[in-house]
């Protein structure tokens, strides 16, 4: 049996941006037909449904040996490297996510954007670039999508054409298919590094300065309530991870997320995650329900991955009733916008609440608003540390402690 190194089972020969859409001298379609044929023959020799869920190296080596034998029997002339690559790609179809595996093994890639079967983009270093990776057709892409969503007990079809999911490594996945996406299935994968970004990384990347970091460390340890604001991909979750690292090991932390992304290192952490509705449209558990339930769990700290709706009111009430040191993020373009959005979302929970009452809740609950931004060149910066100082007339008053000025 040929020796197989599991470490190179995925991503051993990644198709990088700029590589041709051919394999050696073979046309893409011919190459895909070869893969399909090998996969079909493999079905006659191996129970793929059973082995695909197995994670031990011995099984992978055995399946890889069978694949290599099938590739060796091909009449199509292939070089040694071409046969090896073909074998590895078939293995990726069995145990992984097919053409996406090389990208998932690349630690420099933060986003994978699949625009139908023939177009795959990645974000690397804050910049988008097109790859030459393709799926055979929409059916092939849908097979990979089904593999992802079925692993967490969800489905996607014409009656339910949108779904959020996550990979085993915590990467966040969004899928939308026809008839909502006109040009075929689309999938977005937001990846999270296996090694969380640290405060040293933030300093090295000039995301913030040492005095800013010192202030934030003291704020968390002093149990101030903090909101991290920013746009999509600005680094809010990354910042929340770093801030949470300053929480004492002696504290009980409850995290609440729509899709689990936080990577806290403390031992006493209770992780709660929302649940979507089932195929009958029942059984959904929303963030607001989890926030309310978390108050009965004797938390020292509550961390909400992202406040998006009615749960904003319950979060503010928790911050005002003894749950100091709570942390959350919000989608907004400035600290002032963050306060306005929080006000709007809190009023969604109770339309009878006067605006002034909600603003008073915000002013007494939240101490700091951090604004993180991603610039056109891909760099990320903590652009504002703003303190909420109270109320002036009917307006929440704020003052900037630190402001980033781009040269």
What does this structure look like?
The termini are far apart. This protein has helices at residues 28-43, 48-51, 57-72, 80-95, 101-104, 138-150, 199-204, 210-221, 236-244, 287-294, 311-319, 335-349, 355-365; strands at residues 109-115, 120-124, 127-130, 162-166, 172-176, 186-190, 226-230, 253-257, 269-273, 301-304, 327-331, 368-374, 380-392, 395-403. The protein has 3 domains: 1-96, no CATH class; 97-192, Beta-Lactamase (2-Layer Sandwich); 199-403, 3-Layer(aba) Sandwich (Rossmann fold). It has an 8-stranded mixed sheet, sandwiched between helices. It has 407 residues and is of the alpha/beta class. Helix 1 (28-43) crosses helix 3 (57-72), helix 10 (287-294) runs parallel beside helix 11 and helix 11 (311-319) crosses helix 12. 34% of the residues lie in helices and 21% in strands.
